[in-house]
Structures are given as structure tokens and as C-alpha cells.
Amino acid sequence: MASSYPPPFDDPGEVREGFLCPLCLKDLQSFYQLQSHYEEEHSSEDRDVKGQLKSLVQKAKKAKKKLLKRESDDRADAGSQERYESFSYGGVDPYMWEPQELGAMRSHLSDFKKHRAARIDHYVVEVNKLIIRLEKLTSFDRANTESAKIRAIEKSVVPWVSDQDVPFCPDCGNKFSIRNRRHHCRLCGSIMCKKCMELVTLPLASKLTSASKEALASHTSPNSSPNSIQGSRRGSISSVSSVSSVLDEKDDDRIRCCRHCKGTLLKREQQIDEREFTPEIVKLYEKLRLCMEKIDQKAPEYIRTAESLNAGETTYSLEHANDLRIEIQKVYELIDALSKKILTLGLNEDPQPHPKTLQLQRMIRYSATLFVQEKLLGLMSLPTKDRYEELKEKRKQELERKLQMAALETQRKQEEKQKDMVSRSSAALNGEVPHLKKATVKNSEGWLPTSSVSRQREIADPLLQQIDNITSFIKQAKAANRIDEVRMLQENLRQLQDEYDQQQTEKAIELSKRQAEEEEMQREELQVLCEKEWEREQHKAMSQHLRTRSLDFREIKQHQHEVGKDNQNLIAHILDLDTTQIKSSPSSKTPSPNAAEQLASKEKTVFSIKTGEASQCDRDQNQTSLNPFEDEAATTLIDEDSTNPFAEDAAQVMSFPTKALYNDKKEYNPFENDEEDEETNGAAVSSPNPFKGDGDPFQKGRSVQNSGNPFDESSSTNPFEVDEEISGEEVIEEELLLQQIDNIKAYIFDAKHSGRMDEVEVLTENLKDLKRTLAKQKEKSNC
Amino acid sequence: MNVVFAVKQYVSKMIEDSGPGMKVLLMDKETTSIVSMVYTQSEILQKEVYLFERIDSSNRETMKHLKAICFLRPTKENVEYLIQELRRPKYSIYFVYFSNVICKSDVKSLAEADEQEVVAEVQEFYGDYIAVNPHVFSLNLLGCCQGRNWDAAQLSRTTQGLTALLLSLKKCPMIRYQLSSESAKRLAECVKQVITKEYELFDFRRTEVPPLLLILDRSDDAITPLLNQWTYQAMVHELLGINNNRIDLSRVPGISKDLREVVLSAENDEFYANNMYLNFAEIGSNIKNLMEDFQKKKPKEQQKLESIADMKAFVENYPQFKKMSGTVSKHVTVVGELSRLVSERNLLEVSEVEQELACQNDHSSALQNMRRLLQNPKVTEFDAARLVMLYALHYERHSSNSLPGLMMDLKNKGVSEKYRKLVSAVVEYGGKRVRGSDLFSPKDAVSITKQFLKGLKGVENVYTQHQPLLHETLDQLIKGKLKDNQYPYLGPSTLRDRPQDIIVFVIGGATYEEALTVYNLNRTNPGVRIVLGGTTVHNTKSFLEEVLASGFRGRSGESSHVTPRSSSRR
């Protein structure tokens, strides 16, 4: 629940920002108010602005609705329908009431300070007066001065109250007599009886006075103990003599004073003590907080690095990441150690610390435990060196593949232009409007019109050129062995490619939308053009496909999955070989584009009936037909295209026996095939989260496939899983093992802390197992 | 209008303003419950608050390395405690927050006590009520009235609570009150007085439609708190009792040590948040799903984790599992105990008759059913007594009222005199003479037809057919149809539009059934936000205590009836 609240104090400000009146800049709280304010105040003014405002308000309303809807979806995951119903009713669940400002408050601080200042002045003056007098009383060598002289000095410091004025002790009320003698406070001059008299020892006095001096001259070291100060000031007095003087009951090193003055002085002393004393726990706690801050800084950096490395990117170095990981782990250990130390502070001392102190220590330990638990688990493991090399290799391959794509692109563009010409001429021959011709062709086959595609390619051209340039730079830099430059360039290239990929996706989406529209039109045209019998046949075929549609999807996708996996395995095996070899092994890959094509064509049949769904399905198709190696396969296919199995396929499926159409189709097919592949690839590559940095082709491929396939259940994109499935190599497992051991240790620690002994047992058991496995692994790797 | 959030914001602000470093939260008894309703311990630990202390506790140690955040009600005692604290400060620096308006002289005496200049902040943060749900608040006051009139101390506390609520939500409302209740009028006047006096504080931005405060009296609807409940939150409160989100399970047979007391808070317990307004049957199936989920996630304890994949799955699921295991064991225990009580006390049957008594007007059938139930040995004296109370309230002036006979039956059943006295006490508290609105028979044509149709269709769920009177009142209020002569405005101005932001306050305590009603009204009415408050949130037991505490002792049954005293001895 807590998370459904926005961070508490950010919102009011934002809300206020949002609802300023555009004309008078008055701050209004909500858009309702803004609207009403606007209608009241500015209704006679410019109408245009008002319209704008209204649309703005409506937008805001829509946004709010969306927001609420989303929130409700989040909350409703437990499956309670009520959350949805609440919206159909139109009211709002109190849990989802919009965030509100902080409630009213009122400060009394200035009042408080005013009153306090008056009081403090009085108090401070009093204390200072006492300290100054004390200073005067102790500034001479009392031990070696005659008592009469001392008395004279004491009397000079503060005027003594005359004996006659005070017949009774003001504190206890006893009558003064010869036996109950009067005593004077040396600090304020008042009179009290012996019982009520207090004494200030010289060490205390010097501590107080020196502390005030220190406060004035701040450069004095605060740690110098009162004793040392005393020593320097009153070096002539030995401790022995001071003890003896106490026994003598002389006032040599004590100063008589009244209770009130003594109380004031003691308070002062306490303050001085506290100022100088930092308890152990504070030092440890400060260190602990520093560590936590460090983690908060470093952990995101590490996660970023690890993600990038696991994707095979070269932006960060593996050594650096390992160092970072070790550093972070050390900080965690430090947090653990520090909090443990805080927990056990003073436990061995006698007397035991106050229960509240212990409670404080326990609580700090508990919160540190929570912290470690929460953060430590987010750390992912790093690839080992060998693994990292593999990943890098893969990444490189992918980059090169992209390069080739780019090269191919330019080539294809030219060919397409030619094709376009050919198609136009053929259309002219038929005596029909070119557009119509193309449309029918397209419908029968499900491919995009060439003209529009080629236009888009031209737009994308500068980007591709740039990519070309950079790759050549990289090659040069590599040849010259300038590694940082390579790295920089590669980063550059990556950005460019991301950009390009994104463009491609957008285009693909746009295209599919346009296609859907056109298809609607074309269907009508088709009906006019085609014979009725033929039409009937078509309908039959279509309905069949409709019925089996979901099944088809599944089969094909599964098939594709397998193919994808095959490819992955293949790659893993021949990684060490030259990359070009991969491309020249078409036999293993041909099924994959084939499948994609099949799927595509089938989907097209659906489109022609349900054009409304078209765009969505099209996107679907883009995603599902992804296979990292598809385009390579396609490129090889271009050469051996004469048989054109896909066109056959499509024709069968569609049951369009018209010859003219068929011919056209044949003409177009080879190029549009890889056009399509191009599209799908573009869409697929850019679909993963751009922040993650694209990289690991396997992972990405898998994730996209999964997301595109609603029937597939295992949609995990966890790098671990992929690692395991693909390589199953021991080195990596070792890394994993270490990670798991770390984690389990954290759990044990937590379980112990909260006293769940049964869990501790289970966990310890697991830990043992893990360690055993680890040992075995090490043996193996050593062999 | 979210009261939980309002208080939470205040507390967060206090903690944030004190800066980094170890902190102690210094509270009094009431603010402790106020804070504990909105913050969990682990949540507040993350903000470096490690200790929670009561200002009146003498067992506090001097810890100069801690910062103190004082959140206190501005009572005389608290001010005195704080003065003592400041004279000899135990912590390095003090941030002082009062939960309500504090008078200038108190500020002055505090300032004069702060000779060591340890106070860094003195503010008023108006979190002076217990936030139960986002739309429900309570003041945890029991027995707020003496007879029909306010207890002076309780009135001032209620006024403070209500004005603090208005301030924390930044609402300066128009006030309506229930005319038939003297205490409602009195409270309305007190609130108005504070608003007038502290006009600077209540100077909020004007909204198009001003908010509305409606003050009601429990005695107008004594039926609702007497019924058995079947939605989760209400049921738990009725059968186990919720006290500041805590449930005491120590009386549950065979309860394990760590489940003696459990916390049910919608803020941190997703299952509870999703199910608190569902009925018992639905919760049963949801609990089952929860268990199944849990079983899936449960690591196989016996079977050792052999492969890395097993291990990984275990590690990944462990935190979730741990969190879930807490939730599961808690809710399974609570629901298990509820169903045990239901069958032990025969509550399904009891509730059916209760609902019949509350919602239908068939005297003879009701009487017959009651007689049958009163013979049933499984029905507890408590349930028997409340059946008779319901009967007494509904058929108080019925021509063939057979209350004396039922009282006889109670006595024969061995129901203690305390409960038998309570029957007449409840009638005295909420009988026809007192009620301003008609609880039982529908007033206008529309509701008559509605009831007629309802009768034709049959009720969907016999156990939840009752709708509290509050539903009708609020429904009319939202539609702008609430009669001014029954619920007049305080002051000359009236609301022309339909109200949007509504705060309802029930003197004598609200119930969770009403909380549910308000929840549903919020969900079904666009643009309307309703917050429900009460001097407390009642279940039947606490309601009967309230009746007793208000001084309605009831007549001892014997004197008014023919039955000789000796017969009860047998």
C-alpha cells in the first residue's frame, strides 16, 4: 500500500505549478477551480485562449483518468473485480483518492524564541557572573596564602551579606547561634548554615573556568583533559597535599558556596562534559550511515555495469566491474560488522547498559539488517572472463551483421527502384491503374508496396551512411590498435544503431497501420475485380484459417522457438570459427524464415477479413518472426531464390489461383521477402528496453519471442537462465554458486536475527550443499 | 480527503524536518496510537527513528546523541511533562509538535523552561485523530455522553478531534446536524466556535462547493451496532475486536506464541486491503487461493535443493515467501477463528433472525423464530440478549408486543441480569421516543416501492440485507434531498449545490458496517468524497458498554414483570 502513495511532499508543489491561470497567473488549486476562475474573471477576454484552456483541462482529465485506471489495475492484480467495477460506477475507491497537500500547520517557533531569549539572557548572565567570580577566587595560590588574606580577596570578589540581616538560615530555617554558625557563599555572598553549605573543589572550579576560556578561544584542543589544564595552572600543588587539606577541613582547595550557586555550576559542568564527549555508538553509527550512503551510490553504478557486461558490451571493463563488486561486498560486510558491533556495545561491561541503550542498539542492528537484505539481493553476478569473451564475440557478430544489413540495404534499394519501374510498366501493360494493380498484388501476397518502402529507405539513408563510416573507422582504429578510440567509436555506433532501429520500428508500426487501411480499400476492389466463384473459394479458405488461427499461431511459434534454439546452440558450438561460416550454413536456418513467412501469409488472410485487427496483428507478426539470424538466412536466400518456396506457400494458403496475380507475385517476391525480414528485424532489435543497452542477442531474441507469443509460458528474461540453457558450462555455475552462497548467507543471518530456527536449519543445509557443489566444481576445473 | 494519508504526511514531515541522525519519537498515550495507525515499525526505522518513548515514562535514559521528535497532544499534563523534560533535557535537540491548538501561555512557559536552548522547533500539526481507513477516523472515546448531554471533557476532546480533522484536510465546512439530538447541536456549535476563533487557520482556498460537516447521533440508529456482521473487517471487529488495527487472539485455542496479537492494516497487508469489504464466503475462497499460491512458493523443505535451478528459484522466491508466510498464517488463523466462532455460537442462524428483525416487518414470524432460537442451547446469552434488544427496538409499540414473554425466556435460559437490564437500557437509549427518523418503516413512495420490489425479488444474501440508516441519510444528502427541518444548517447560509466533500460524524460511535456503506457510496458516486468519523468504532459489545457508560442502566426486569424473583433461581 505504501508504495501506491506518491512520495509525500513532492506533490503539493507540482499541483500548484500545474494550475496557474494563463492570463493572470493566479495560482489555483485544481482544474475545476481554474476553469471556474477563468469563466468568472476572463470570460469577456480572448475566446481563443479559452478554447485552449478547455482542451487543456480535458487533457488533464483524461490523463487523470488514465492514471487512476492504471493504479486500479495495479491494485486489482489479486483478482478482485470490484476494482474495475468502481470505475464503471463512476465513483472512486477511497484508497485511490488523489494525493492531497500536507494539512494545515502553525509554527510557534518565533514566539517561543522570543520568550526563551528573554529567559536565556538572564540565565547566561547569571552563570557567567558566577564563573567570573570563581575565576577570581581560584586565580591565586590558595595553599600558600594566609587565610586572612584569602578572606580579604574573597570578600573583594563579592560583597558579603552582613550577619545581622540574616537571623535564620534561608534554606533550612534554623536559627543561627554560636553552635550553628553563619557561612557565606563565596560566589554570591549570601548566608547559610553549615548543613546547607556546599563546596566547590578546585579541580571542578578550574574545569569550569578553563572551559569558558576555551569557548572563547576555540583553537584550544577540546580533548585536553581537565587534569592537564589543572596541572599547568596549578603545578605547585600536589595531589597529596590536596587530600590532606581536605582532611584538615581547611578551605585551601575548596570554595564555600550556597546550594543555588552549586546547582548552577553543576549544570554547567554537565553541559561541558556532554559537549566534549561523543559516545562510541555515535562514532560507529556515523560510519554505518556513511557505508549505507556509499552503497546507495555504488550499487546503481554496479548494476548498470553488470547489465552492460552481461550483454557483452564493451562500454565498461570487466576488471573494473569486479573491483566494484568486491568493493560493494566489502561495504556490506562492513555494515554487517558495524551493526553487530553496535549491537554488542557495552554488553560485557559491568554494570550493564540501560535497557533503553540496548534497545537502541537492537533497533539499529535491525534496520541495518533490513537494509542489507533489501539491497544485497538486487546485485547480479558478473560474467567470468571466458564468458565475457564469448559475450563480446557475440556482440561483435551482431554488430557486423548489422553492418552487412546496412550494406545490403543500399544494394537492395537500387534493385527495388528497378523493380518498381518494372511493376509500373507491367501494370501499364494490363491497362489498369498502377495503384489498383499493386493493391491487388499486395493483397494476394501480403507484402508491402515497393514504392513506399523504397521511399523510406531513402529517408533512412544518412543514418546508414553514418553507420558505415563509423564501422570503417572502427576497423581502422582496431588496425592501429587504439583501444579507447575503438571503444568510443563502438559506443557511438551503438547509439546510431539504436536510433536507426527505433526509426525502423516506428516505420514498421506506421506501415502496418497504413497497410490495414489500404487493405480495407483493396478488399472492396478485389471483389469487383474477381469472379464470384473465385471469391467463394477464397471465403471458404479464409474462414478455415480463421477457425484455426489460434492454433496456427501456436504451432508456428513453437516451431520457431525450436529453430531459434537450434541456432543458438549452433552459435555456441561454432563460436570460435569465423563468423562468415555461420552465414554460409543455410540448411540449418532456412526453416526459420520459412516459418515466419508462413505465419505472415496466414495472418494476411486474416487481415483481409478483419481489417480492424490488422495493425495489431501485424505488429504481432513483426515480433514473432524474429530470429537473430533470419536476415543472414534471407541474404543467402536471395541468391538461391529462383525456386521461391515462399511464394508457393503463400499461394497455396491463400488459394488464389489467378495466374496474372501469381506472376506478379513471383516478380516481387525475392526482394520483398527480405524487406519484410528487414522490418521484423528492426522492430525486434529495438523493442527491448533501450536503457538496458542492447547486446546479448540470445537474451534479446528470447525475450522478444516470448513477449510476442501469448501462449508461451516461460517468459523469463533472466540472464542466468539463458546462460544455463545455452552453455551449461561449469565456470559460470561456479560464479552462480558463489552468488547463491552470498544470498543464502544473508538469509541465514536474517532468519537467525528474527529467531526462526527452523528456517535457519533449512538454510544452513542448503548452504552446505552449495559449498559441497562448489568444492566439486573446483576440483573438476582444477583437473 | 484521505485521513490516513493526512496523518502520515504530518509524521513524515516531522521526521524529515529533524534531519539526519539517530532519533527518538517522544509521544503520549494517544499520539502513540495515532502514529502507530499510519506507520509500521520497519517503515519508520528506515527514517532513522530507532526509539519510541512515552513522555510520561520515568524509565527513560539520558541519551544526548539522540534527537527527540516530540508529538504530543496539547494537554496540561503533557505541557508539564515537557517542561520537566526541557529543564533537564535527556536528548540533544528537541523538535516539538503539538497535535492541536496550544495556548500562548503554554508556549511561554515551555520557552522559559528551555534554558539550555535545546528546542529547535515548535509547531502545531493537526493529526489529532485515529485514522482507521482512508475514509474512516475515530477518536477512541467511550461513553461520550451522560444521558442525553455531553460529558464536558469528552465534548472538548471531540471538538478538538473534529477541528483537527478539518485542518488536516484543509476543509472549512458548512455544518448540518441532527435536530433530534441535543448533543449533535452542541458539538456543531463548539466546532463552529473554534472555526470562528481560529479563522486564520481555517482560511483555506475556497472551493466551488464548500465542504459539508454532518453531525449525527448514534441513538438515532441503535440497530446497526447490534447486528452480527459478515464482511471481513466488520466481522473481525464484531467477533474478535479490533483495537488500533490490532487483534487480540490470545483466547484462541491452541494459538502459537507469535500470533497472540496480530496487526491488520490495509496499508501494508495487500490481502487485507483487497478483502476487508468482502463477505465471509468470498474471503474463504480467497484464503484458499492464497494458501495455494503459498504452497506453490513454499520451498520444499524435505526435498533438498539439488540443481542450481532449484537453488536459484528458492533464493528468488525466499523474500516473497517469507512475507507471504506471515500474511498467510495470520489470515488463516483469523479466518479459522472466525469460522470456529460462527459454528460454535450458531451465528448463521442467529444472524438470519437478526436481519429479519432489522429489515422486515413480519412480527409473528420473527417472534416465532426468536422463540425457537432462544431454546437453542448453542445460542449464547449475549446473542440471545441482543436478539431481544432488536425485537424490543423494532416492535416497541407493536400492538401484540410480547417483550415480557421474551424476557421470561431470557431468564429461563439463564441469561444474566446484566444483559437483561441492558434490553431496557438500549430501548431507553435508542427507542422510538428518542429517534428523529424512522428506522424501520419506509417513509416515501419511492422507498416503499423499493422495499416491495425487494420483497418480490427475494434478497440476495439473507445475512447482509440490512442497510444502515446512514446509507439513506447520505444518499439523500448527496442528492440534495436531505430535509432541512430534520438536519438543519448551523448559521444562516445553506448549500445550494449538491455537496461534494462530506464529513459525517457520529456521536456515540460509528460502526464498520457504516464504514462499508460509506466506502460503497464513495465508489458509486462520482465527484463525491465522504469521510466517516465517530467518537469510536463500535461492535456490539462496545456499543452496549457505551449505553451503560452513558448512564442508561435500564430497569431491572423483575420489577416490571409479573415473574416472581424466585423463579429465576431454579
Explain this structure to me?
The complex is a heterodimer of chains A (783) and B (570). Chain A has 783 residues and is mainly α. Among the domains of chain A are: 131 residues, Zinc/RING finger domain, C3HC4 (zinc finger) (Herpes Virus-1, 2-Layer Sandwich), CATH 3.30.40; 105 residues, Methane Monooxygenase Hydroxylase, Chain G, domain 1 (Up-down Bundle), CATH 1.20.58; 45 residues, DNA Excision Repair, Uvrb, Chain A. Helix content of chain A is 72%, strand content 2%. Chain A is built from 29 helices and 5 strands. Chain A has a two-stranded antiparallel ribbon with strand order 2-3. Chain A has a two-stranded antiparallel ribbon with strand order 4-5. In chain A, a hairpin with a 6-residue loop joins β2 and β3. Chain A is elongated. Chain A starts with 10 loop residues before the first helix and ends with a helix. By secondary structure, chain B is an alpha/beta fold. Chain B has 4 domains: 124 residues, Rossmann fold, CATH 3.40.50; 173 residues, Rossmann fold (3-Layer(aba) Sandwich); 114 residues, Sec1/Munc18 (SM) protein, domain 3a (Syntaxin Binding Protein 1, Chain A, domain 2, Alpha-Beta Complex), CATH 3.90.830; 103 residues, no CATH class. In chain B, 48% of the residues lie in helices and 13% in strands. Chain B contains 22 helices and 18 strands. In chain B, the strands form 5 sheets. Chain B has a 6-stranded mixed sheet, with helices on both faces. The C terminus of chain B is likely disordered. Chains A and B meet through α2, α4, β1, α5 and α11 of A and α1, α3, β2, α5 and β5 of B. β1 of chain A pairs antiparallel with β5 of chain B. Chain B: Its main location: membrane. Chain B: Belongs to the STXBP/unc-18/SEC1 family. Chain B: It is found in: Endosome membrane; Golgi apparatus membrane.
